[in-house]
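Re: export button greyed out
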Amino acid sequence: DAMVIQNPRYQVTQFGKPVTLSCSQTLNHNVMYWYQQKSSQAPKLLFHYYDKDFNNEADTPDNFQSRRPNTSFCFLDIRSPGLGDAAMYLCATSRAAAGDGSTDTQYFGPGTRLTVL
Amino acid sequence: AQKITQTQPGMFVQEKEAVTLDCTYDTSDPSYGLFWYKQPSSGEMIFLIYQGSYDQQNATEGRYSLNFQKARKSANLVISASQLGDSAMYFCAMREGAFSGGYNKLIFGAGTRLAVHP
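Workaround output, generated via the alternate export path:
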C-alpha cells in the first residue's frame, strides 16, 4: 500500500542536542510538509517542499531546518532543541496536479513524538 | 477572526448512534476545499472526506458524510452508526482558493474530541 512513513515513532533527545526526524513516501507526491503539533492543539505548518523548492512559514524558528534529497524522502532537523520543542511532528504529502479531477488532499504519516529532557 | 470554527470541544455518543460534528468556516474566496481528518490517540491524522466549494452534492465516504450548507458556511461531519473505534479527535480544515496545482495550505479548526460509549 502506498503510504507515508515516519521514523522513529518516538524520539528522546537532550536539551540542545541536534536531532533529525525522517519521513518517506511511496505516493510519489510532489509536495511534502512538516507540521508541529502540541498537545490538544491543531497541527501548525512549519514548512513545505514543492519538488525541490523549499518554502518556510514566516513564524517558523530558525532552529528548524529541512532537507529533501529526493522525491521520496524529507528530513526535519532541529539544531538545538529546547523544552518548548517537545511535540508531535507530522509529515504529510500531497499531489501537485490540477485539471485531472484530483484533489489536493494531504496524507499524513503516523508522526514522531519528540521528548526533550 | 477564526477561519475555521469547531464549537464543540468534546462530544459523547452511544455506540451505533449517529453523531454530527460541527464546522463553520469563513472565507470570501468563491473557491475553496474543506477536509475532515480523524486523529486517534496514536497521533496519525487520517483523511476522512473532502468537499469542494463547487461540488453539487454532499460528499459521502462509507459511514461518513458531509452536510455542506454553503450559504451558512458550514460543513458538518456526520458519522452514522458510531463504533468504539471512532473515538478520536476530529479536525475540520479548509484550503482557501482553487486547487491550481501545487502547494496546499490548510487552515485547521481547534478540533472536537469524540468519545463513543458502549
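The radius of gyration of chain B is 14 Å. The button fix ships in the next patch.
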